[in-house]
Every structure is written in structure tokens, then in C-alpha cells.
Design brief:
Helix content is about 65%, strand content about 0%. It is mainly α and about 90 residues long.
């Protein structure tokens, strides 16, 4: 079965995110707990100046886009409402 372009994009995102998270842990940026979670807050503090004073035009554009159009937070009530609407719409008589 061939993957759709959305499936490929999701896979690439997951793969890159997993690699990045592994790298954070490998350089010691993790919480000192038994489940070894990456310490994103500590990482953010270390790279803060890159985002507040970027010198790369592509990064500046990406930051501006993100700040102008931040991702929306999906709340569970919105999710369930949407699922109920979808199920009613697609239910067979």
C-alpha cells in the first residue's frame, strides 16, 4: 500500500522529532527521572538567543510565520464534538 503525501509528511516529522529528542538526551538534556524525558525547557533556555536575535533570513521568516499564525490547541470537547458530528454525518441509515 502506497503512503499518501500526508502519511509521508507525518512519518518524516515523527522521525525527525524522535531523532532530535534522542540527541537532547544524548547530550545530557533530560530530566533526572526513571522515564528519561527530554528536558525541553533547559534546551529552550540554551537556544533562546537564536530565536530572539536570529540572523538567518529563513529562520526570521519561519519565526514570523509561527508568531503570526500559531498552531491551535485542540481541546478534548472540540475533538469529541467533531467526532460526534462526523459519525452522525457518515452514519448509514
Amino acid at each position: 500500500m502506497e503512503m499518501s503525501s500526508l502519511d509521508k509528511l507525518c512519518y518524516e516529522f515523527f522521525r525527525e522529532f524522535a531523532r532530535y529528542e534522542y540527541c537532547l538526551k544524548a547530550i545530557g538534556l533530560y530530566h533526572n527521572t526513571k522515564d528519561a524525558k527530554a528536558n525541553w525547557d533547559k534546551y529552550a533556555k540554551q537556544v533562546e538567543k537564536v530565536f530572539y536575535k536570529p540572523d538567518n533570513p529563513d529562520l526570521i521568516d519561519a519565526i514570523n510565520y509561527y508568531m503570526d499564525s500559531p498552531p491551535k490547541k485542540l481541546l478534548m470537547m472540540e475533538f469529541f464534538h467533531g467526532m460526534i458530528h462526523y459519525l452522525k454525518k457518515t452514519a448509514q441509515p
